[in-house]
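User: Can you help me understand a structure? I only have the sequence.
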Amino acid sequence: MIVPRKFCEKCIHSSVKLLDFQSPIVFKTAKFSAPSAQEPTKYSRQMIELKDPRELEKRQKFWEMEKEMESKVQYAQLTAEERIVHEAHAEAVRRGHFTYDDPVTGDRIKTRLRHFLKGRCCGKACRHCIFDHEKVPDAKKKTSRFNSSFWVYDDDAADKENDEKMKALYGL
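Assistant: Let's start by predicting it. Here is the structure, written out as tokens:
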């Protein structure tokens, strides 16, 4: 269970928490070691301290950006499901993780930290893309909206648009 540290004044009753930007974990990263003979399918993860000044500077810039983005989130406009996703993402970022498991679908989702450190849009319409979906195809962009925290997609809209194109193509 996640224990909230701070709450947004507007959303005290919704249990949506703000990120703790003073956490020392921002200067650590996960290091994965190879599976052991006893547990061949499990990888162990330990947090190691970052010592490279360039990496520390990147992380500091990320936290400045993340603090600004967090201040712009409009919690009142997020659905209950979106608030849960926002909280899961915030917890993963606070811990310095590159991914988290979507609490709704179970999918593995990349965090804004991962996108920031990568430094460019991959074009796959990622939920937490910080590059305004620069390389995402226009058809996918038309079905997306930014809910003040992350990108949300309406796959039904894409299907409907595709259906209309197919009907026009076949003269239906």
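Now, to help you interpret it: Confidence is low (pLDDT under 50) at residues 1-19, 21-26, 40-44. DSSP finds five helices and eight strands in the chain. Let me know which part you'd like to focus on.
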